[in-house]
Design a protein that fits this description.
The chain has 389 residues and is of the alpha+beta class. The protein has 9 helices and 17 strands. The chain folds into 3 domains: 90 residues, no CATH class; 175 residues, Rossmann fold (3-Layer(aba) Sandwich), CATH 3.40.50.150; 75 residues, no CATH class.
Length: 389
């Protein structure tokens, strides 16, 4: 479904993407919705009508990427042709022209531009997520983590973060040390800036859904995602993690377009999903819908408490695991083993007599388990924890 005011573009019957108001174009429906959100943000939040940009009025919205209008450029006072400023949406003198902004990337757990404007030394990075709702969610997450710290084996907290470090600051203000915190982002530059401001942080570059699996027990986890984690048919995606690996679990989801259910209905679905974990304790507040950056109610936030189970060696039996290929190195006959995203697929089939090691049996390339256990040395439980899927 396309945003209001958008239509398909074709060239002699060949599909060329989509076109929206003021000449905006997009290759995919998702990008069309991104641009539509920028338009709404500019008009409803910043109070700057997009129609004025087309007339040459400078745009004050940092997320805009205005296409150059057709026709010859006007001349400046010296008679030289002006250049189009893609960021401000107006004609400027040639010596003041700006480059086209970096394109936005759409990831499950990273939603901001990867390029930052150069800043003076000591200048703070702006908080790109400064809505009242987001601020209240940060307070709620930090307060719940501090309140439940005595119920956890450790104090490790995993969450998505930008270089502004607002969630980090909130957790530090609630008594946590930098060594307790595990900020995550796809952009290593964002994390480098953050680590410079707060030495001692354990930063993680990559997908938070994968980083979360590397430990069996967290005090807190916040999946602040720009995805609904729902398939088109309404079923939950297989990427949905085991929430009870953390004592406090917060989830932020997006409902970017109509999929047959409202954002309030998505909130209800999220609450039911969080309740379904066998180790669910309670939710201080129910999952609820709220307005995102586009000033439309398309976001959902939920938080719940869990009692992570204490694992004994026998509990690992028949647990499915993905073993990294580099753990054993390249060995003869590796092509006969099933491989998934750079991992070997195995299960725990035996616990050693002293209960300090776990023996694995692997799948072959056809998905059938080998008849015998692997001849390599067994694996310690704390090593196996990060491979559990």
């Amino acid at each position: 479904m396309l945003p209001p005011g958008w239509k398909r573009r074709t060239d002699f019957g060949v599909f060329k993407g989509y076109q929206g108001p003021y000449g905006h174009k997009a290759r995919t429906i998702d990008l069309a919705w991104d641009t539509f959100a920028d338009i709404q943000y500019a008009e409803h939040v910043k109070g700057t009508p997009y129609a004025e940009h087309a007339k040459g009025t400078p745009c004050k919205t940092p997320t805009c990427n205005h296409p150059k209008p057709r026709g010859r450029p006007p001349n400046d006072d010296k008679g030289k042709p002006r250049v189009w400023d893609h960021a401000r949406g107006c004609w400027v003198d040639a010596d003041k022209g700006s480059k086209r902004p970096a394109k936005r990337r759409r990831d499950n757990n990273y939603s901001s531009d990867t390029e930052e404007d150069p800043k003076e030394e000591g200048e703070e990075d702006p908080d790109r997520y400064d809505s009242m709702a987001k601020k209240s969610h940060r307070h709620e997450f930090a307060i719940n983590c501090a309140n439940k710290a005595s119920n956890s084996e450790g104090r490790d907290i995993l969450y998505l973060e930008t270089s502004a470090g607002m969630t980090t600051k909130m957790l530090l203000d609630n008594g946590f040390a930098a060594s307790d915190l595990h900020p995550c982002n796809h952009n290593d530059k964002e994390l480098a800036k953050l680590a410079k401001k707060h030495p001692g942080l354990h930063v993680h570059v990559g997908d938070i859904l994968e980083v979360y699996k590397q430990s069996r027990s967290w005090l807190g986890i916040w999946f602040d995602l720009e995805t609904s984690l729902l398939k088109a048919n309404g079923d939950w995606d297989e990427k949905v993690p085991i929430f009870s690996r953390a004592v406090v679990c917060a989830v932020t989801l997006t409902n970017p377009r109509n999929r047959g259910f409202t954002t309030d209905e998505l909130a209800k679905k999220l609450q039911e999903l969080m309740n379904s974990d066998d180790n669910y304790d309670m939710s201080p507040q129910m999952a609820r819908a709220y307005n995102g950056k586009s000033n439309m109610k398309n976001m959902v936030f939920g938080l719940a408490h869990y009692s992570p189970p204490v694992w004994h060696p026998l509990d690992y039996l028949y647990q499915r695991v993905h073993v990294p290929l580099n753990y054993y190195g390249k060995f003869e006959g590796i092509e006969e083993y099933k491989q998934v995203n750079g991992h070997l697929v195995a299960t725990v089939t035996r616990v050693s007599d002293d209960e300090k090691a776990l023996h694995l049996t692997y799948q072959d390339k056809h998905g059938v388990f080998f008849a015998n256990e692997d001849t390599d040395p067994p694996v310690a439980p704390d090593v196996l924890d990060q491979w559990i899927v």
